[in-house]
What does this fold into?
Amino acid sequence: MAFSECLSQASLADCLQRFFATAPVDPAGMAQSLWLIIALPLAGAVVNGVFGKALGRSNTNLIACAAVAGSFLLSVLAFWTLNDPQAVLSSAYRRDPIPYAIGEDFGTWFAAGTFRAGFGLDVDHLSATMLLVVTGVSLLIHIYSTSYMGHDEGYWRYFAYLNLFVAMMLILVMADNLVLLFVGWEGVGLCSYLLIGFWYDDSAKAWAGRKAFVVNRIGDFGFLVGMMLLVLWVGALELQSRGTVAQPSADPWRVALLRSGPLNFRGLEEASRRIAPETSQITGAIPLDATIAQGPLAGFSFGSVLTAILLLFLLGAAGKSAQLPLYVWLPDAMAGPTPVSALIHAATMVTAGVYLFSRVSYLLVLSPTAMAAVALVGALTALWTALIAFAQNDIKKVLAYSTISQLGFMFMAVGLGIFWAAILHLVTHAFFKACLFLGAGSVMHGNAEETDIKKLGGLRKEMPWTWATFLIASIAISGFLIPLSGFFSKDAILHGVHSSALKGYAWVSPTVWEIGLVSAFCTAFYIGRLYLLTFEGKRAPDARVPHAHEADWVMRLPLVILAALSVLGIFYGIPLIHTSAGWETVMENFLSPVFVTARQLTRLFGTVKVEHEGSLLAAWAETWVIALAGGGLAGFLYLKYFPSPHRAPLPAERTVLHWARHKFYVDELYELLIVKPVRLASFVLYKVVDTLLIDTIAVRGTAWVTARLGSLLRYLQTGDTQSYAAVMVLALLGWAAYALFQVLR
Amino acid sequence: MVPIQHYLWLAAVLFCTGMFGVLVRRNALVVFMCIELMLNAANLTFLAFARQRADNLGHVSAFFVIAVAAAEAAIGLAIVIAVFRSRGTLNIDEIRTMKH
It folds into this structure.
């Protein structure tokens, strides 16, 4: 029914609801076209990478932006389609179709033995949210980059990498199985490496890229091992539960496992439903602590193997999302161009770990140990890096540590099973942190690439647009004075953490909650410090240029849009929807179809218990006061007490600053504990195995033996045909004599 | 009738003479003739056995050998002449090219 036609019969609200609940395109057709979302930026990357230099700057800009814009429009269409009740995904792994999801299986990607890896795309509300964030923020950053990289010679390389990154990130969020997700996971890592070392002439920047790559590789190794264990785990589960059902061949899960492989997310979801608590008597289900009878995992219980798998996933997620102990690459990643820091190292790629755990939420809730580990890693990271951010003077470094800290908040939420809050914070964080980074880029652009906040200051009047958007984003992240989107998403996490308890780990949630509160205080403080030193006060006397210039409108537009989004994000964090269970936030309600299995399993196993439903208003007030205190302290210190940035610090302060400024010597510790021993071992291996054993003995030794043998045998080669003939005759005689001897005997 | 052993002894002597010549003589033309001697020794053996067993297959083989030997002689003599023209000698110690 047309919208205008509807308006004559029903109220505006009803008509709007009906309008947005009708898919603009055929859901089945949309599902078949999902690959286009990836193909567009991929094609842009190929065209820009191969022909970019010949096409020229304007054409490259146009192609790069148009590819991402097309992707964004298709993502909007996909998002819209999901609202339609007809948009259902009929997965091969289960009988009933899945509502609010579309997907397409493009067949088997590769097969080895009984293992299959499919090539399929699957978009549900979680993927769709990520799709919009990734393509939307990417589009803004592409537009911003056309101006920011306007004078760089390698513009075509830059846009090719950026487009490739978008394509890889889209593979990551749309993949319907872990193997395909891993392709995107590695792909974004590669693009991150390429873009951190974008200015490879500078060896420090090239090294930063290498560091990011190597640290990520450690995490990816864990992830890969976890995936392999998961294959065995699903296989063991299938084998063990075969006897519990009447007709295994009629079970769609078993049939699909053979045809499409064990790592499909829908298949894993179905597998998690075959697990039951120890006491319950669900038919066809295996108890979590049952011992695996056959196969390589024989002797371990399903629960303990699953915990190991999830801890390995945590290692992978810690690498990609820069959590303790693998966070050290992200601050160095700031060597890349600032828009890259905004896109890859703040808004999208680093959230992959959070996305991964939300994707396999149904597995995570089966293991309280893994959940406690995730939450504690998140909490410690949030506090640790917030403390380091206190003393950093590089504007991008502060934001980098802040990113790690905010990712820590998301991990806290994931660890306590509040997945929707983690995703909400992911989305709002993408908006305000991208805005902050782009603002920082604008500041650097207008101040001759100055990044030291002690040498900036007083930019409020000189860069009004940057100032206003930076202020809004700062308020959004810290929750200072006016609660904006970040306040509500962070509070959703803290409130959720406070009111829930992990089974067997009752001490975790209060600990995490308290660390979270301290981290929120620290956030407000360091963001306040960053803002005040950059924009308020007087212009520093040792600034590089006497007057900063405001960025052009191409750079201002993304800033304004992102700042507006940081404000509008509030809408998703406020409980507006009334359900049977009480008031829910829009995000919680929107994502509930994704986490339905996780919620059922949580209830079944009692992994996370909601201990007390505290008042949300009281929690808001508490967080607000904390943010106010942090921001207020920063204001007091840097506006009133220490107006001059160049005074001598107090003795006690000096020690604290010294440690924080040197990042608590973690890099040095890793250097001593890991890098040095590895270097030493490599040196020994190089000298003993490579130089001595392989080069000298194996390679040169073979050549020496051959040469010596050759010069010995050379004496036989006289070149005299008659002597050869004589040898032949003698041999013949010898054989004849032998034959004669045999015959006579 | 002459017993077959006599033919065979004669053939063996001829063959050994030829072989000895091939191995020790230095003149290419003589080496060549010695090869003919060895071939004829083989022919003699064929014919002796053919006669003994009353089987014409031995004669056929002998004719083959004669035909091949004729072709070989034509080519071989041509080579000998060519070598003599280019080098002015037929001493095989001097015309060896298999070793530098």
In short: Chain B has a mean pLDDT of 89. Residues 57-87 of chain B form the longest helix (31 residues). Chain B is about 80% helix and 0% strand.
